[in-house]
Design brief:
Layout (H helix, E strand, L loop, with lengths): L1 H36 L2 H32 L3 H34 L10 H22 L2 H31 L4 H33 L8
Helix pairs in contact: 1-2, 1-3, 1-4, 2-3, 3-6, 4-5, 4-6, 5-6
């Protein structure tokens, strides 16, 4: 009966993590949509929605600590719960970066973009997919999927470098673009950090399955 109860509580934990991941993915998508469309109201919703994700993180953290305190898990079960605690921290930080981008959107208002937003939405889509895959890898305990997240980070890094180069050229050619260009550089940096956090999640998945930390290549 004790094991059955533990498995049920572990399933509830996983379900809440899936819910949190879904909210995080939605926040990424909405914050980039808001930026691209100058949608201040949507940006405000992303900014306000960060509180819900923060609360869910606290709920999951409490679940994890209760499982450790009451069930005293060992070996694989303890790694699973420990990994969950690390993963929700990364997801919460991803949501924070969505909120940061939403704040920039509200600051820019209806200001015309100095260049079409092409690579930034691509970065956002890549980051969102990486988050989705990393959580799927955790739920399914799939080491290969976790490694695929790591390799996806190269595309994000390439896009980041391209955006930096493009915006640097624009700023050099027209000093009036500097303020907005800096804001867009921050957006790109936040997206790059989201991808890094997704990679962290993949790393925790591999630790959870293998007991080894820092082994993503393969």
């Amino acid at each position: 009966m004790t094991r059955n109860l533990f498995d049920k509580e572990l399933e509830d934990l996983h379900n809440n993590m899936i819910k949190m991941a879904s909210l995080v993915e939605e926040s990424i998508e909405n914050t980039i949509t808001a930026l691209r469309k100058h949608d201040i109201k949507l940006a405000a919703r992303v900014f306000e929605g960060d509180d819900l994700i923060d609360e869910l993180e606290k709920t999951i953290e409490k679940q994890c600590l209760n499982l450790i305190a009451r069930q005293q898990p060992i070996a694989k079960d303890l790694r699973t719960i420990s990994a969950a605690l690390k993963i929700i921290t990364d997801m919460e930080r991803i949501a924070d970066h969505s909120s940061d981008i939403a704040e920039i959107t509200m600051r820019l208002g209806n200001e015309k973009f100095i260049k079409p937003l092409v690579d930034i939405p691509k970065m956002a889509e890549c980051a969102k997919i990486m988050v989705n895959k990393s959580i799927d890898a955790y739920i399914s305990q799939d080491v290969e999927l976790a490694r695929a997240v790591y390799h996806s980070d190269d595309e994000v890094d390439d896009l980041f470098s391209r955006i930096i180069l493009d915006l640097t050229v624009i700023m050099k050619n027209n000093a009036k673009t500097i303020d907005q260009a800096i804001n867009l550089l921050f957006v790109a940096k936040y997206l790059e950090r989201m991808a890094d956090h997704a990679t962290n999640i993949g790393e925790w998945v591999i630790y959870n399955v293998t007991g080894e930390h820092g082994v993503l290549e393969g």
